[in-house]
From TrEMBL:
Keywords: Cytoplasm, Hydrolase, Metal-binding, Nucleotide-binding. The keyword Signal does not apply. Nucleotidase that shows phosphatase activity on nucleoside 5'-monophosphates. Its cofactor is a divalent metal cation. NCBIfam families: surE. This is 5'-nucleotidase SurE. Binds 1 divalent metal cation per subunit. Its EC number is 3.1.3.5. Belongs to the SurE nucleotidase family. It is an enzyme of class 3 (hydrolase). GO terms for cellular component: cytoplasm. The keyword ATP-binding does not apply. Residues 9-196 form the Survival protein SurE-like phosphatase/nucleotidase domain.
Length: 267
């Protein structure tokens, strides 16, 4: 903690340091914490845990803008620019980061995972944007107040989770919130969830191109979603804030069949 007992937070994202949701979350955290921004200079959405060998960094009114990925920002932040951080927060992302299938490619969630490997707890914060279509989706959620449900939830957890012992079991939290008009109430109810296993990627081969579509988002927006209560997707469909406590290291299990194959190798 800082000299005044306030938490020191490294704030990053994948939408870029000048994104509306990033500034909304910065302002919410700045009300109780020492916040240093170390975020991509431009949009780095869906890059996963991609890392660079080197990246230019420039000072920014909120901290530092890095010409690299969210992973670059966390490594640079925790090891050089903001090494005394108590917590890393990533977001607020414009668009949900939900389901086990999506988490691996999310730059927002990957920043939290990178932090966990450094031994620093983290919170990824994202907002489910509803309405519109692919043509005008980017025009939605253009005002900081549009992110108020997500930033309220993210700030609450950033303020309370360290002292509550949450990170004695979880390495990071993946938080997803509805837009205000889709919240069941304000502040929206917060529920602890697990990532959905829903998967509906499709490919269509047409002439010399392959078109890829993810059916998750259409099903989410329509409300016609198969998950029961308990998953991150279902919580958002029901207008609630989803919080999934997750761990970063990959787990391993012993498998008798693989043990037998290894023993027979070379025989």
């Amino acid at each position: 903690m800082g000299t005044t007992g306030t938490p020191r937070i490294l704030l990053t994202n994948d939408d870029g340091i000048d994104a509306v949701g990033f500034r909304a979350l910065y302002d919410a955290l700045d009300s109780f914490a020492e916040v240093t921004a170390v975020a991509p200079a431009d949009d780095q959405s869906a890059v996963g845990r991609k890392l660079s060998r080197e990246a230019d960094v420039v000072e920014h009114p909120l901290g530092y803008a890095v010409h690299g990925t969210p992973g670059d920002c966390v490594v640079a932040g925790l090891d050089a620019l903001c090494p005394d951080a108590d917590l890393v927060v990533a977001g607020c992302n414009k668009g949900a980061n939900i389901s086990a299938y999506v988490l691996g490619r999310s730059g927002t969630v990957s920043a939290a995972v990178e932090s966990a490997f450094f031994g620093v707890p983290a919170i990824a914060v994202s907002m489910f944007v509803t309405g519109g279509d692919e043509a005008n989706w980017t025009e939605l959620a253009s005002d900081p107040t549009d992110f108020r449900v997500a930033t309220h939830a993210g700030a609450y957890l950033a303020r309370e989770a360290l002292g509550a012992g949450v990170f004695e079991e979880a390495d990071y939290l993946n938080v997803n919130a509805p837009m205000p008009e889709n919240a069941a109430a304000e502040p929206a109810e917060m529920v602890v969830t697990r990532p959905s296993s829903f998967h509906e990627m499709r490919a269509r081969h047409e002439d010399s191109r392959v078109h890829l579509t993810d059916g998750l988002w259409g099903r989410m927006k329509s409300g016609d979603f198969p998950d029961p209560e308990g998953t991150d997707c279902r919580a958002l469909v029901d207008g609630k804030v989803s919080v999934s406590p997750l761990t970063a290291p990959h787990t391993t299990e012993r498998h008798e069949a693989l043990d037998d194959l290894a023993a027979d190798y070379g025989n």
